[in-house]
Specification:
Largest interface: A-B, 47 and 46 residues
Oligomer: homodimer
Strand content of chain A: 15-25%
Number of strands of chain A: 20
Mean pLDDT of chain A: 97
Strand order of the largest sheet of chain A: 3-2-1-7-20
Largest sheet of chain A: 5 strands, parallel
Structural class of chain A: alpha/beta
Helix content of chain A: 25-40%
Order of helices and strands of chain A: EHEHHEEEEEEEEHEEEEEEEEEEHHHHH
Bound molecules: flavin-adenine dinucleotide, NADP nicotinamide-adenine-dinucleotide phosphate
Number of helices of chain A: 9
Distance between the termini of chain A: 57 Å
Radius of gyration of chain A: 22 Å
């Protein structure tokens, strides 16, 4: 019998986790399928592979990245540590709990470089279209080799969708926005605070992007930052120059009108209104159709597409946990593809999914969310040999982190946490976060 | 025998010309195939359907439009007039030679609304993938109904690609640009001059976009505008506050270094560096692979894909002529699909293409370009019943227009020209272009 073939779409943290999972099995002497990963960018790392570009890239593909200059981890690194590759192993000394993007990118790469998996990745290659043959039970994937302007098809037994879901903006319309004279952009196209220096900024949204872009712009010299919320205000004690307002109802030229009857003029509007789960390369019967939430429907154990579990989705949840969650998912998916983990029947899977969906509907606050995602990981980590880690402790850290942010949104990144993988206590960064204007790796690791 | 089916991709001026061409034949009593047009936007008009958005639209599809506020025709309207629907017929009075975008959009819609073709268009529908079956000689087109998040396939005997080629940016990299602190954008994402008021702007490129965006920003209050050219400067007498420089070699923070050794600091960089012909929905053996030029290779008579003439491309040339050229192309394509116009053998077609390519290679200046495209239209207009128009006269107007621009880049839009369709002399606009800050149709038609 010929080797099974696995196709992975995307070489971000999730796709790389899948490659790493197969490599780990191979090192243990197991027979693994032929694995190919397709990545439309020229490098791996997904979101963490920063691009100065907005719009489209060199080959005219939509830019995937939503990260920006001066982006620092917004949660303690101890909450996302790989349990098979610690920060200590990588940096050989304790570092702070909130590293900037280049440092975390370095860490991701450190692990994956230990394996020789780069050869499995076809870069500058976009997945254009997928079909599934009910008779042969195989996927045909249409690929676009961007560098050579060549398309070709390949067949796979399993398809792992690891294309991320924080890339395609959700950009609502507000009456009059078409006549707003200043810059109107989505958080996806925000590349740094510098150009907004001395400006009065309006950010729409009340989640991570609004909070972080707002704080960064404040730090880097915006004149004022207003956050406008639809459902709930973030509700922390904002420093002078930052405030929250209810939702914008409409615009007249540069003037925003808010639900509470107040109005104010702005220089620029940044829509921090989240992202769409978008899979233009999949026929609709294979598409995950969901909003950003902790348990997207139709995914058994959060990964197996219930209609056809040969189709696997990684990292499609809203994320407290990130790298370590992708790992637990990838290890489980691998064991299924290796025939080591057997799925129950479709109906049984449905019952399990529904149980989680019901619980998800009744979550009340951040603490509930953390416990929910911790329990989800607990549920799947035991099904593979991914190294267990102290989930109770991580959940505690997340709750502490929520408190830190509430206490002081400008200084929470100066706190330190303890690794559950190595027990190491994080170092204090040489400079207070509010005074640290340089986010380079060189500066960060400088002693 | 069942009716043949024609699929049209795009409802911009070219796609609409194709619909109109079939409708014209139908009105003459001819039997026409079943025609379906797919348009990913929610309205017709292509580029002329302005969007305030940049990046992606409501459904996460890349925004097609590259037009902006305060965009006025950059050539005399008399050079693009439909020969079967005059400006007089539409506006019922003489208007000026350089109308703003909303007015030309109105004109395009006026003609198409006379036919009942809107029902043939499926809006909010993106063509995702096309394949061609050598046995059945049919195209299968995978469609994505964005509103309903549904995909489906349809078969066609002929496929008309009218998806435009001024939408996917060509965005070169310049060393250091990643650290430029200000706004860096492509002309495609430029939405108006207002936000650049009082700024020092650097525009890279020396063609229509650079010239027009530069002049608009100057008009609307930019502090200074520098245009940086790669091959040739535009070379007109720039007004104070505008100038041309050789190509940028690199950036250091907000400072641009030019080839001539000079340096200057800027607030924003707009890359007016043209567009890519991009067909992500086609397999590479059906893709037109070309730069922006007057005679793309592999298109017989500028429309029939030589490898497979059931595949038709409209409007893929660089454009002096626009609407009237698309019409002559669409009428010819229609007659081929109706079986009224027969193609010679592939080799013969190749010889004809080569003849044009050779001539294209030896063109020297703007006048040569105009004559070339005039001759091309002359070559195809006689092959269908599209109403002939005085091409010599139009070519003369284009040459006059080139001179007008050279004489004064700020006032050329105040000139008037005479229609070759009706003989009407254009009216003078009530306000000098440099003083006209409102580009609405209401203001334009106000007396
Ligand atoms: C602004 C921002 C800040 C964030 N900050 C943090 C943080 O501080 N800490 C944290 O833990 N998490 C953070 N995240 C969450 C982040 O999404 C995850 O850390 C992680 O990147 C998700 O990994 P992924 O592999 O699932 O998706 P991604 O990282 O998005 O990678 C998906 C990959 O798939 C590729 N791809 C997509 N479509 C195709 C296609 N058709 N063909 C081929 N390749 C394709 C993309 O190019 C990309 O490389 C942040 C997210 C955003 C948007
Ligand atoms: C900034 C700018 C200014 C211009 N100004 C002038 C001017 O003053 N005068 C002039 O004559 N010309 C001007 N032009 C040229 C302009 O391109 C043409 O006038 C005309 O719009 C070209 O028509 P088209 O139908 O070929 O392409 P477009 O107008 O680009 O229309 C293509 C259509 O195809 C659709 N489409 C693309 N891909 C898909 C898909 N996969 N599925 C479904 N639908 C799809 C798009 O949404 C769009 O509606 C300008 C162009 C630009 C970029
Ligand atoms: N490392 C960092 O510092 C950093 C920075 C930014 C982002 N991130 C990450 O990026 C990911 C995405 O975060 P996100 O904040 O972009 O998305 P998100 O968490 O999905 O939040 C979307 C926000 O948009 C609002 N919204 C949606 N539609 C709206 C509408 N029509 N009108 C008004 N508001 C609307 C939502 O409000 P409702 O509550 O009303 O729905 C919500 O506040 C997260 O994983 C986050 O951790 C990290
Ligand atoms: N109505 C209006 O007012 C208006 C306004 C804007 C645009 N338009 C239309 O839009 C269409 C597109 O025009 P366009 O100007 O965007 O594109 P274009 O005519 O194709 O010109 C592209 C320009 O980019 C330059 N360029 C390309 N790559 C470069 C690089 N790596 N470095 C430096 N320069 C580079 C080219 O220089 P080289 O000469 O060196 O190749 C050229 O000057 C035209 O049909 C035009 O009529 C109309």
């Amino acid at each position: 019998m010929s080797k099974k073939r696995v196709g992975i779409i995307g070489a971000g943290p999730s796709g790389l986790a899948q490659l790493r999972a197969f490599e780990a099995a191979k090192k243990k002497g197991e027979e693994v399928p032929e694995v190919v990963c397709f990545e439309k960018q020229s490098n791996w790392g997904g979101m963490w592979n920063y691009s100065w570009r907005t719009g489209v890239g060199k080959y005219g593909e939509p830019i995937h990245g939503s990260m920006y200059k001066y982006l620092w981890s917004n949660g303690p690194k101890e909450c996302l540590e790989f349990s098979d590759y610690s920060f200590d192993e990588h940096f050989e000394k304790p570092i702070s709990s909130y590293p900037p993007r280049p440092v975390l990118f370095d860490y991701i790469q450190g692990r994956i470089k230990k394996d020789n998996v780069r050869d499995y990745i076809r870069f500058d290659t976009t997945v254009r279209w997928v079909s599934f043959d009910e008779n042969t039970k195989k996927f045909t994937v249409m690929l676009d080799d961007l560098k050579n302007n060549k398309t070709y098809a390949e067949e796979f037994d399993y398809l792992v969708v690891a294309s991320g879901h924080f890339s395609t903006p959700n950009m609502p319309y507000f009456k009059g926005i078409e006549n707003f004279p200043g810059n109107v952009l989505h958080a996806h196209d925000f590349r740094g605070a510098d150009q907004f220096k001395d400006q009065n900024l309006l950010l729409i949204g009340s989640s991570y992007s609004a909070e972080d872009i707002g704080v960064q712009c404040h730090k880097h010299g915006a004149k004022s930052v207003t956050l406008s919320y639809r459902t709930n205000a973030i509700g922390v004690d904002w420093p002078e120059g930052m405030k929250e307002m209810p939702l914008v109802t409409h615009f007249e030229e540069d003037e925003a009108f808010f639900k509470n009857g107040e109005t104010e003029k702005y220089d620029a509007v940044i829509m921090c209104t989240g992202y769409q789960h978008k899979f233009p390369f999949l026929p609709d019967n294979m598409r995950l159709k969901t909003k950003n939430n902790l348990y997207p429907d139709n995914l058994y154990k959060g990964v197996f597409f219930n209609e056809n579990p040969q189709l696997i989705y990684l990292g499609m949840q809203d994320q407290y946990y990130t790298f370590n969650m992708f790992d637990t998912q990838a290890w489980l998916a691998r064991d299924y593809m290796l025939g080591k983990y057997k799925l129950p029947a479709k109906d049984e899977r449905r019952v399990d999914i529904d149980k989680w969906l019901e619980r998800n509907e009744n979550l009340k606050d951040g603490h509930d969310h953390v416990d929910f995602q911790s329990d989800y990981i607990r549920d799947i980590i035991k099904l593979s040999d991914y190294p267990d880690f102290n989930l109770d402790k991580v959940a505690e850290m997340f709750k502490e982190w929520l408190k830190d942010k509430e206490e002081n949104i400008l200084t929470y990144r100066d706190k330190t946490y303890q690794s559950v993988v190595t027990g190491t206590m994080a170092a204090e960064h040489h400079t207070d976060w509010m005074d640290e204007m340089d986010d380079s790796k060189e500066r960060y690791l400088f002693e």
